[in-house]
Every structure is written in C-alpha cells, then in structure tokens.
Amino acid sequence: MPALTKRSPKFRLEFVANTSHSVHGGLPAVEALCQQFGLWEKLRRLPGLDCRQRKTHGYSPELIVAQLLYSLCSGGASLADAERLNEEPLAKLLARVPRFADQTTVGEWLRAQSPQSVAAFWELIHQFVSWVLAQAGARRWTYCDWAEAFFDDTQIEVSGPSFEGARVNYEGHLSLSWQTFWWGPFLLEAHLDSPGDVSAALPAMLERHRALWQKQPGDFLADSGSSAGVYLNAIAGAGFTHWSVSYNKWTEPLERLAAAQPEAVWSASRPAKWRDGSAITEQHCRVRHQPEGCQQPQTFAVVRFKGADEFFWNCRFVACDPDRADAAAIFARHRLKGDKENQIKEVLRGLDLHHPPCAELNANRMFYAIAALAHNVLIALKLLHLPDDCQSWQLKTLLRQVLLLPAALVRHARVLVARVQVPAAWLCWWRALMTRLWPQPLVGRPAG
Question: Is the residue at 409 inside a domain?
Fold first, then answer.
C-alpha cells in the first residue's frame, strides 16, 4: 500500500437555500415506533395536557410533545433547538404541519402543566415501557434472566437565581435534585425537586410499579442514600426476589457486631484488590441488626478487609434480603450497580439534560418527563430492532448512526417520497425495518 498523507482539498463550495433536504433522516423510525404504540392518540386522551381555552386554535399538546420528542431524538437539547425544527422539512412532514411552535409557545405550554398532568405523563411512560418489554427478548435487557430495578438521585446544577426550587447542595453548588427509578434499561419514573432527602420519592415509586416485578424475578439495587430505616422498610416490603442497599451511615453498631462475630462464621480469607489497586485480604459473613426506624431486624452482608501492612480490620456493609446465604456473592452482585449508575450519566450526556430549560419547577418536571420518553423511545428502537452487535451502543452512537442521516423530499408520480440515504451495509436493515413499521399508503391515496 502506498504512503498516504493529508493534502489540501480541491473543490469549490456553493451554498443554496434548503427547502427539501434534511439531516434527520432517521426520524421516521421514531415516528413509526410511536405510531405503533399509539402514542399520539394516548396523548390526546391524557387529562390535563391541553391547557388551551379554545381547542380549535393553537398547537395541540400531542404536537408540542412530538416537536420536543423529535428535537431530543435528533440531538436537540433546548426549547430553541425545538423551534429550529422549522428548518427541517422532513420533521414538519412527519407531523403534517406547516410550522412548529416557537420556543415561547412551547415554554408557555410547559409552564401551564400541573403536577397531575406530569404524573399522568409518567403513567403513560410506564405503559410504553410495559409495551416494549412485552415484545423484547429477555436476554437483551435482563441480567441472567433477572430483571434489575435501580434507584438513585443525581444533582442537576443550575446557574442564576431564578430557578424555582434550586438550592445549594452539599458541594456548594446551586442545583436541583433528580430522583430516578429504572427498570432494566428504561427510565421508568423520575422526580425533579429541591435538594433534600435524596430518596423521598422512592416509597411511592415502589408502590406504583410493583406489578412489574411480580411477573418475573427482580433484583433491586440502591446506594446508601436509600439506607434509612423508612426506606429499608419500603424496599423489604416491595416484593423483590432479591435486593441490596449500600449501608455506610450509622455503622458503629454494625462494626461492634462484626467485631464480636466468632472466627467460625467468617468465610476463608482470600486475596482481593482495593479501589486503588493495592492488595488486600478479605473475609465475608452475614449479621442481623435492627437500625433505627426499621420495623424488624434486617440482614446485612459484611466484608472485612485489611492490607498487608495493616493490623486492624476495616468493614463495609450492604443491607440485603435474608434469602441469600453467600455474603461474598451478595457483594459481587451489588458492585454491578455501577453499571446502573452509568445509565444516569448516559441519559444526561446523551440528551444533554444538564441544563433545565425553564425557571419554573413544574415546567422543568414536564420537560424532563418528555426527555425520559425520548430516551425510552431510543432504547426501545435499539432493543427491538437493532442487531445483537449494536446492543452496546450508547445514545450518542445511536443518534449518529440511526437518526442523523441525510434525506431528500422528492415527488414521484404525484406521491411525496422521503429518500433517506443510508450506508450500503445498512440498506437491507432499513428496508426491512420500515416495511414492518411504516404504514403503507392505500391504493389511490392522494399525495400528501
């Protein structure tokens, strides 16, 4: 092969006004999936979304949700990005509107939402997730045929004094608290509020969604923010097959209890590595202890460890269900919650949700609920239709490979055709996918 070097390009550039081309050629796949679920009709029936005084004027709620959904699923992150869809002829054709709402109108609609309409929207997301999982192969979203539930809180930092509900967090930054509940790869529910009790929304979420893990084995994972007695009571009574919660608060009674255990109850010593890579020796056992606020004694898995130059043992604890006897296996399974924590980072990075778009708290709650729906639609597209070797794709990769494709609108035999240009290796996949999902026009149907 001859040597290749970078050389200056030799061609002429010309710029023309765009009226028939789009860079969002993958949006028909999103629209087809939403139509298959019946999303738009369900949104029309959802109570509280339509805040118009005259229903025959203005933008309907399902159209504004579609506008935000199209924007978020094609790399947009703000209300201004949603308005810029007016420059995309394919997006307007999918919604069959001459023009989308401007950002002021979208912001007014978000501010008009109530806590009841936000809760109804999350219930619709629950229905969508259930619909997807009923079709998806279990091996694609479960861990060894076990469904995983995960709860965590993350801080969304804001700038400026005008954000309703924002407070200074433990790191000294002005922020909002976003408590998220995950079922498999899907963001099932979330609650945006002022920083405070980081698990305040957990008991109600467990009660609303418990029917999901009654149908199959479920494993619940959470960090130490959910280790207070009231939350351990809720988790233990939620009906999970197995559950585990990091426990690093109020550990003095547990440390005394672990120190009092006879040597016979500890597992055999085995070598391991600490987080910094240093060599340690560790042993495991289980103990029973009733923390303050718990209705009954709880089971704790304990690991004690020390380095070669240390004389005293260090201990770590995980609150867990009483049905598992192997404390080492409990810790090994619980450490996998790091993968679930990455899901939160992925949705924040992939959809660029680090900056709430509105000053009003309830408007931001609805925006983040729509963002969760956009995330779940993209995950459903991957889970249901992409091949196995694409299941590890992150959102950024999914957007680049599937959504951001060139497309041209042309008329052929009085029929408007969207010609999406895809890589040759993906041509058969796209044709097969849209044959399954895209509604075919009836014979004799007029163009448009």
Answer: no
Is residue 180 included in any domain, yes or no? yes
**Count of domains forming the chain:** 1
- For residues 68 and 106, the answer to whether their CB atoms sit within 8 Å is yes
CA distance 398 to 377: 12
With pLDDT > 90 as the criterion, what percentage of the chain qualifies?
68
Residues 6+ apart with CB under 8 A from 98: 92
- Exposed e or buried b for every residue in 124-143, given b needs 16+ CB within 10 A? bbbebbbebbeebeeeebbe
Alpha helix locations (H) across 3-153? 27-37, 39-45, 61-72, 79-83, 89-95, 103-111, 115-135
Tell me the two tokens of residue 383. 């889970």
Q: What pLDDT, in 10s, does the model give residues 316-354?
A: 999 999 999 999 999 999 998 888 889 999 999 999 998
400 lies in some domain: no
Q: What is the distance between the alpha carbons of residues 202 and 271, in angstroms, rounded to a whole number?
A: 37
Contact 180, 198 (CB under 8 A): no
The 10 Å CB-count burial string (b at 16+, else e) for 274-290 is eeeeeebebbbbbbebe
- Domain holding 310: CATH number? 3.90.350
CA end-to-end span of the chain: 52
The residue type found at 144 is C
Residue 321 lies in a domain: yes
Give the predicted TM-score (pTM) of the model.
0.92
- Give the residue numbers spanning the domain of 132: 118-345
| N residues, the chain | 448
Q: For residue range 109-125, what is the model confidence (pLDDT) as tens digits?
A: 999 999 999 999 999 99
